[in-house]
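Collaboration report, partner site 2.

Our partner group contributed sequences for two proteins of shared interest, and the home lab folded both. The records are reproduced in the order in which they were received, starting with the first partner submission.
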Amino acid sequence: MQTINSKRRFVIISFDALSSRDMDTLKHLPGFSRLYRDGSYCEQVRSIYPSLTYPAHCSISTGMLPITHGVTSNQLLQPGRKDPDWHWTRDHIKTDTFYDAALRKGMTVASLLWPVTGKSAITWNMPEIYANRPWKNQIAVSLANGTPDYLLLLQKRFGKTRQGTRQPMLDDFVHQSALWTIKEKKPDVIMIHYVDLDSMRHHHGYASKEADSALLRHDRRLTDILDVLEEEGLMEDTTLFVLGDHDQIPVKNIIYLNSILKDKGLIEAKGGKITDWKAYAQTLEGSSYVHVKDRSDTETYSKVESILKTLESIPSYGIEKVYSSDEAAALGASRDAAFMLEASCGFKFLPDIDKPAVAPIPPAIDGWFEESISTHGFSPDKENYTTVFFAMGNGIRKGIAIPSMSLIDEGPTFAKAMGTVLYDTDGRVLEEILE
């Protein structure tokens, strides 16, 4: 088999929350129709559990399930903190990544908002990180975790486009930066993460006009990248991978597990803030971990288990399934929590301690829902809850429709195409699409 050598270029584009259900629209548009015509693809890609952006991108990067690569949630377990820290930095990933393998091979790598890459060895790095404390500054935290001279140059050229983390302005900034990077830096590998669609679905609704507009913007962004590759004479030597990380599901009601645990005497609070806890729900929107602080405390463990099983038996609480720690680990999720809960369709979990056990999502203000009315984090086995994958260009066969695959098949495939390897992965190399 012919493999692609290190002189080839690789463009890897992640469209957050891109769904299999979007393809009926996108396959008729200029960018995505070209992927169908000139490449190979899968319209039924299984995500991971929990199906959140950071665990998903780490699974894409490593070919591993969350339990193996170590990033089993978006945020750290920080009970009571209003805005917990996220798994922003590369050291949270406990296994190898395809971009580390590329770097070891001597390839240059650019990354724009690719999750969990802060403080990595990536050549030109704009990490996904935000200032989540009043005393922190966005530019300062980005510089501290990325490539300072590169970031300052992008800020000088395109910074006026951005308005904090608001979309679609943030993606417009990332997009302008990506096009410039391709033209001026010509990296061997570039990874780009766009979040526009995910944001619009969260705050305006799954099938809202705002989400539809984001889909059209994504096709234009894809087309722009293809055009730049052509204009720069890079297309012939480029392998392009385009993918999603998870789907979303509309929700109407919020489950406040920590309010229940507080009422049962398992969380202590003063002035609305947690002062101590025996059990705590680390909520993941479509699912939730439930931690028991002292796992040797059999009395507390049994009490929590009884509470959760009772809630599971009452449909109005919106809990579809309660998993033990061993059961969650078998699904590829965290082994550290005592339990894991899956929400029923139409429900999601949030961490507040002072709300009713279950409550409807508050109404929109000027068309914007503060609490997301469409979300993810659910089991990848939920019905009609898959994402997509495309490959096109140098070293890729045309016209191969893969019936089904998983996110964990992507990293090993990237590595093989780059002429390197990821060892002992949970996923497989998609040999059928490689020339």
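Second partner submission, folded after the first:
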Amino acid sequence: MRSHGVAAAGSPYKTTAYVAVWEPGFTGPELTFVEYIPAGTVLRVLSARKCWNCPFDDLIDFAVSVEPSPEKFANHPVSVRAEILAPPYVECRP
């Protein structure tokens, strides 16, 4: 899984505002870093949200905690697209 540091929209600074986890990922001026999340990392779902005004899809993503948390994630909210929380990417455990 790929994680992407994202700067706030319209921000003149390249500081990370949040972290997005999804495949295949993206590029652009708002990108502050790309880091792969290694196998064995634990993602705990904290909350869910669904896009209510997306023109093509009902995008669903989850706020998660990451354990162990990479240093680049420090103090930034992390979200994961719903399709990433499905095989072959994830193994669910009780």
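Feedback sent to the partner group on the second submission included the following. The chain has no helices and six strands. The chain has a mean pLDDT of 86.
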